[in-house]
Amino acid sequence: MKTLKVDLDDRSYPIYIGADLLGVADLLLPHIRGGEVMVVSNETIAPLYLQPVLEALSGLRCDSVILPDGERYKTLDTLNLVYQALLEKRHSRKTTLVALGGGVVGDMTGFAAASYQRGVNFIQIPTTLLSQVDSSVGGKTGVNHALGKNMIGAFHQPVAVIADVGLLDTLPPREFSAGLAEVIKYGLIADPDFFQWLQDNMSRLMARDRAALIYAVEVSCANKARVVAADERESGLRAILNLGHTFGHAIETEQNYQGLLHGEAVAVGMLMAADLSQRMGALSGADVQGLKRLLTEAGLPVQVPSGMTVAEFHRHMAVDKKVADGIVRLVLLRSIGDAYICSDYDAALLEALLASYCTV
Fold it and tell me: Which residue, 55, 89, 102, 262, is the most exposed by fewest CB within 10 angstroms?
């Protein structure tokens, strides 16, 4: 087992990474301050993994709530199911919520923890690759709105993250590939050596080699932990973690979260960001083609969904969280491993980029 630390002074917390960690009481119990626990999961994950968690917590008063599965359920209406369960079971301010699921469960559980009785503790047990390397770490919580993704939420750090790569054995291939998009992102934004490792070892990851997975999750989480420690509330540096997300969120919103998966949309968005970086004279054509090959090898899309228009991109990008003073800020690349936030890009180049990726 590998243990990392997200360094946030008195709110610092560990990330445990390994295999066969689910249901290990010694990892859970030290992070529960009272005698009450509410486990939040979904209809897909609960039948597979809820029981070992409940058994590890058997000495405590432990309840559970099961949510519908899918990004389209990441809403205030679904979040209310968690509040309802907490109130019906009379959970106090000393309760601890446990998020057992992917990014949707983790984000909603975290938001419930941030807001229930003005804030309670929560633990992340991410069950997808995407959530293990990205959404479970850093304290971003929230829900979607029909007009924008993750527009309602709060920063609220977990007290521990338990990333068991053994849980990825049951992850469908498409979901697994979606997680690889976020893994690739870390190489692109801050770690050129890791990007090269991914180019050399993608076949091992696709085969779900456990040693390779543990290494990829560890390096991804270490990169994210460094950024979060430097800029917890995304006032500057942390925005580089959104490479590809402005384009990707526009795709997700236009499809009402029922088309491309989050990681798939981010993959397309990262390629678009790299392409724009090349058009601005930073990356080489070989860099962009190398990224395209890696995304394809990871089973990820590299095209905007058919029928999406330039106007639709502009409409959704205008409500992106990185918009400042009416200007859409983009995360671009100076080189592989060197990302930056850009607001002075050439609007004509952006227009040409969007036109080249849209089919209508």
Answer: 55
